[in-house]
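Methods: holo model generation. Sequences were used as deposited, without trimming of termini or removal of tags, and paired with ligand SMILES retrieved from the corresponding compound records. Each pair was processed once, and we did not select among multiple samples. The sequence and flavin-adenine dinucleotide SMILES for this entry were:
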Amino acid sequence: MAEVPAESRFVIVGGGVHGLSTAWHLAQALRESGEEGSVVLLERDRLGSGASGISGGIVRNYYRSEAMTGVIAESVGIFESDPEGFGFHQVGYLAVVPERQREDLEAIAARQAQVGYDSELVVGNDACREYLEWLWPDVNSGGVAAALMEKRSGWADAAGTVRNLARKAREAGAQLFEGVDVTGISYDGGRACGVQTTAGEVACEAVIGAPGVWTPEWWQMQGLEPVVRHGGEEVPISEYWLAREGDFVLPGVGLSGSAGRSAPVVHYDMDEPLVSQRDGSVITDEPWGVYFRLGRTGEGIVGGALPLEMGDGFSIDPYGQENPEQMSGDDLSDFFVSGLAHFLKRFRGHAGEWEERPAGGVLALSPDRYPITDWSTPGVYSIVDAGHGFKMLAIGREVAGEVLGGVPSELLEPFRLSRFAEAATHVESRSPYPWT
Ligand SMILES: Cc1cc2nc3c(=O)[nH]c(=O)nc-3n(C[C@H](O)[C@H](O)[C@H](O)COP(=O)(O)OP(=O)(O)OC[C@H]3O[C@@H](n4cnc5c(N)ncnc54)[C@H](O)[C@@H]3O)c2cc1C
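and the model returned the structure below.
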């Protein structure tokens, strides 16, 4: 393997989707502009060994924050530019919600229309029943008040996306290194001038960090306390949640709709009690939700449910699905299968017949649950993920423009660190999830 150079104009820390997209777009912009300079990306483990490699891969634009709609529309354009490379399945994304979330859905649909993101809104129980039964004759539309079909959304292959981004970054001229841990940042006169790594020092003009769930450590490397002043108090910059997901197969029973229609990704929120398929008990009488899509091979279902907040004493490392503490457990299984059976009658009465493979993983949410993209100390740009960033490939493109051209991106303006102090954080939705 090539040696890490002692100098590079730009150093990117972290080989997840954000770091890789930044490396690709930065190297491409340098090449196109004919400017001098190189791009080096340093990843302490393997590319995609953070959340990016285990992501459920759902690409949706279902967010109450208006700023998200614009960034995601641009990001979907990137997936659309190479659907095969990213393993992008543009099957649509259908959000189905009860009355308490109807206004959210109407606002999201209006914003999507504004930015030209093609979607179809259906409002009222009768209209939703007609719409949903057209897709699945055995659907339960009770309690449904609105549905939104995002036609440009779908899902992409997580590992395929990481690999494709790495390929594009290398082809554009970026150098990517695995197994190189960045242990410190060097400053000269208060401005970053290089990074210290397990493979020696690398001098640079600017450092761009996309450290995923390791953001607190990244903050400390810059001499910053890993907190943000939000809502009048100091809160941690990262709050940890367990995304509960799994692969589920009910032999002989699938998700396909009437006339063999392929199923969109479905997001189903409900406020009727959720009753266990296993023993008839009430699992919850609070608002709940499940999401699901067709499995990667066209069989089975990949899905998940509301995430769980991680308690104290939890350790990020080792990160990933080899760590049993970071996997969804039996509580997901009954919740998910019962949620699915609440929505589609074909899944009722089959408890005990499902073949399951638990998945999931740890997410780090920012204080208002949206990404932060900003210069965090002089010469250091940070992309702080908020637990739903797989789909947000355009962040890297915009960051590349900001770092190289010095011109702030309009799309990223709402994602600055200053929004916390200015109380200009994003709109909250009525969804039971912490991230919409
Ligand atoms: C189970 C699960 C399901 C998800 N499903 C979806 C979904 O369906 N749709 C969606 O949009 N999002 C989803 N997400 C969220 C999404 O995966 C993340 O938001 C996104 O991948 C974050 O990308 P990242 O590049 O910021 O971080 P990461 O992918 O975590 O990459 C950060 C990288 O930085 C490296 N690193 C950190 N510190 C250092 C250092 N000091 N030196 C060198 N390297 C370092 C790490 O090793 C890591 O590889 C899901 C997440 C999980 C866990």
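The CA atoms of residues 223 and 269 lie 42 Å apart.
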